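During the reporting period, our protein records have gained a C-alpha cell line. One record among many is quoted in full directly below:
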Amino acid sequence: MNAGSRELIDATGGGCCQLRAEGTIDSASPGFVALTGAPKDIAGREPGALIRELPALAELPSMVDAETPVLRVVGADGIGRELSAALVADPGGESGGVLILVDRSGEARLRRSQARLGRQIDDLKAELAEREREPRRPRIRSMVELARRLDEALMRARRYKHPLTIISIEVESDEALADRAMAVGETLIACVRGVDDLGRADANHWCLILPHTPLAGGEVVAKRVLARLAELGLATVGVGVAQVGAEEPGSAAVERADQAGAQALESGGGLLLAVALV
C-alpha cells in the first residue's frame, strides 16, 4: 500500500498497517500508531500483541460494515475508542495484506445518545401518564381564556354528542365582597370537578363550564354553589343555569345563563333555569 492510500485512510480517522507474509507488521501509518497506542518502531510485531481483542487475522472480514465486531482499544492519547478491523489481502500473495482499523467511537456515542434520549422520552411519557391519572384541579381563568375553553368544550361536545351546561353566578355587591373574593373563588373551585372550568367576569360575577353535564346536572351543581356561598354569609346570590342547544353558539348559552342569574339576583337571590325554547 502506497503512502497516498495510507494518508487517505488516516484522514478518515482510521489507520492501517502493511503486513508481512508471516503476519507480522512491516510498516504502519501514523493513524494506526495513534489508535493502538503502539510504539513508533513496531516493525516485526504481531497485531494481536498490540490489540488484545483482535481476532486471528484469518478470521477478519475484508471490509467493515454494521455487523463487524467492535474492539475496545486505548490510543496513544489515553482515550478509549471503539474500533473495527478488516484485512485486505494482497492479490499477488507476496505480503500478508493490509490491516485497516476504522474508528467507530462516533457511532458508539450516537448509540449512547439515542439510548439516553430514549430513556428521557420514556420518563416524560411516564410523567405525562402520571399527570393524566391525577385529577386536574380547576383554577379561575380570565374570561378571554374561558371563552377559548368554551369553544373547545363545545367542539368536543358536538363531536362526541354529550351535553354541555353553563352556570352564571352573580353575588350582590357590597363593601365586604372585595375582602371575600378569594374565599368565593376557592369555594366555587371546591364545588366543581377537574374537567370543569371556572372564569371570573368581574368582582361579583363568575361563570362555570360543565362538560358532560345536562341541565339537571347543572341544577345540582348550582344548588351546591348556593349552599356553599351561603356558608360564607353571602345570602344574596343569583345563579342561572343553561344547557347549550344543539345548534346554539356557546356565547348565546352564556348570555342565557347570565340573564337567568341576573333575574334571580334581582328577585332576591336563588336559582333560575334558562330552558332553551325549541
